Amino acid sequence: MEKLVEIRNLKKIFSIGSIFSRVKITAVDDVTFDLNFSQIFTLAGESGCGKTTIAKILLGFEEPTSGKVLYKGNDLTTMKHKERSKFMKDIQAVFQNPFSSFNPLRKVDNYFFETLRNFEIAKTQNEAIEIIKEKLLAVGISFEEFREKYPSEFSGGQLQRISIARSLLTNPSLLIADEPVSMVDASLRMSIVNLFKELRDKFGLSVLYITHDLTTAYYVSDKVAIMFRGNLIEFGPAEKVLLNPKHPYTKLLRESVPEADPKRKWTSRIKLSELEQEEYAKLGCKFAGRCPEVMDICRKNLPDYYEVDGVKVKCFLYR
Ligand SMILES: Nc1ncnc2c1ncn2[C@@H]1O[C@H](COP(=O)(O)OP(=O)(O)O)[C@@H](O)[C@H]1O
Ligand SMILES: [Mg+2]
Fold it and tell me: Which residue numbers delimit the ABC transporter domain (predicted)?
């Protein structure tokens, strides 16, 4: 079996605002892609394009409006809670801010022992320590520097490595990493995302790497999908998409790497920017209003995918 995740025509519509001024946005619009075993798949795009919503659907935190998510051939979207919980071990996540994943008053090693006990992975303390050592080693942290410490005793970069080690405790097949380095010091980012490659090679891990940063994406990804206002607008092998982009949006994104919006948290109240709202509401291509190569048809119709040089592009220029 090659395919780990098969996402088919996934759609998520959010309805926001008060009852008198309801706005509907299709945060994920007919998204289809596969994520293979031992593959690093990057979802890239500026803030507010639907990346986190896809991650939340995969993790079971949001229900899709329509479409399917097959995981190892099982449809996650129609699964009952109990059945789904079997996959909790298998799909792990790492988030933007490592400090919010740990209680500041609790020693970090506690979380590790707890996970190993709850999932019945280790039977004795010694067995647990061996597993923890192995996972820490994989992210470049020694057990000695890790044990008996509180979150504040680590730097952001170290704590993010530790979150990754923690996610490995259950031997997952899939790691979902949503902007994992956007709060980490720029000089350390590459060394952390490079871990994904090492973990792919060492444990056969697949990674859904979510980022707005094309530089790190280029160095670690096997495949890249560029997202814009709910649509995957271009996807294919990383070097093709990023070195020789086809879609005018990908070209623009490559020139000006936008910063992630730190205000957009997983749980924050949603307030759409005017531009965002306007673009989501567009009839045709959502990028038409900003596209340097826009044509008449782009404002009326949403293009299909066209295959160019092994890459799928949602743009009328390639009709
Ligand atoms: N729970 C929600 N309720 C209403 N709108 C939401 C919700 N979550 C996300 N959105 C909206 O969906 C769009 C995509 O959001 P998100 O998936 O967080 O994008 P990204 O991760 O690419 O920044 C945004 O316009 C956001 O405001
Ligand atoms: Mg996000």
Answer: 5-254
272 lines ligand 1 (CB under 6 A): yes
Helical H segments across the chain, by residue range? 51-59, 81-85, 108-118, 125-138, 143-146, 156-168, 186-203, 214-220, 238-243, 248-255, 274-280, 296-300
User: pLDDT of 190-226, one tens digit each?
Assistant: 999 999 999 999 999 999 999 999 999 999 999 999 9
Cα 203 to middle of ligand 1, angstroms = 32
> In the chain, what are the domains?
38-65+83-276 (3.40.50.300)
Using the predicted structure, report yes or no on whether residue 230 has a pLDDT greater than 60. Answer: yes
Cα of 40 vs centre of ligand 1, distance in Å, is 23
Q: Which ligand places an atom closest to the C-alpha of 275?
A: 1
**How far apart are the C-alpha atoms of 20 and 23, rounded to whole Å?**
10
Please give the distance, rounded to the nearest whole angstrom, from the Cα atom of residue 166 to the centre of ligand 1.
Answer: 27
Question: Quick one: pLDDT at residue 19?
Answer: 76
H or E element at residue 233:
strand 231-237
Atom 17 (ligand 1): residue with closest C-alpha? 50
Nearest atom in ligand 1 to 54's CA: 17
